[in-house]
Amino acid sequence: MKPVQRLIATGSLVLCGCGAASAHNPVFSPGPHVLFKEGIEIHSGVDRNKAGQEKEARLALELTYGLSGDWSVGVELPYAEVARSAENGSENSRGIGDMQLFSKYRFWRESSLGVQESAAVFLNAMLDNGDASANPPLGSGTTDRLLGFTYGYESLTWYRWTSIRYRRNGENSSGLRRGDNWLVDFALGYRPTMPRYLKPDTVWILELNGERARRAEWNGSAFNNIEANTGGIEWFISPGIFWTLRNFAIKAGVQLPVSSALNGDQAESDYRTRLEFEWHL
Known about the structure:
The protein is mainly beta.
């Protein structure tokens, strides 16, 4: 690319990142991008998961506000539909799931010609407002917290992201506490054509997502009937796409399991899919 062309493309990238929905994050893992100051993001998404005989669909509406150019806060309002099938019949439930509050702070950013690197920390709180008594349950019955770190590298052609998250699950009214979770992610993005301001932009993404869950506990200690079939490790390969046009974006992807070491008698994941729409104001 000639120097003048690179300068124009870089300027377009900077302009897009200052208000358009072109700030890229992976599909199944967090990235370091935050909203511009006083910006508003309206975000909706659908997740569909299948593991053994259980299928789950989850619709969520998310609102995010930029407190500054490096700090954003938001709320997620989910609606869930869970279906379980078995030889003796099926069970279905639908309704409001657990609401989530979140905050992300980008503490470091460094830019050069055609390249930007940044890092952020974030904190999420999953509230206990979903119906945990439904069959199947729509909520966890606990208040959970998630703390994480993410780093991103963005150029005109290539993207790299990595993140690590720790989820601390609460204890329900019966004394049961689901095992805590560690999640680690690596992602690579590729833009096949140079970005042009006010023109559609496409980035192809490939992720490696790992999840490790500890065994559940009952009243502070392991309870054999629960412990035996909880916890374990799963790894996923996740191809996806991030398509943007001005201040509107579409993200989509599928998670495919490549390795599983679950404890006891647990259904392994068959697939997970995600479709998201973003609108920046």
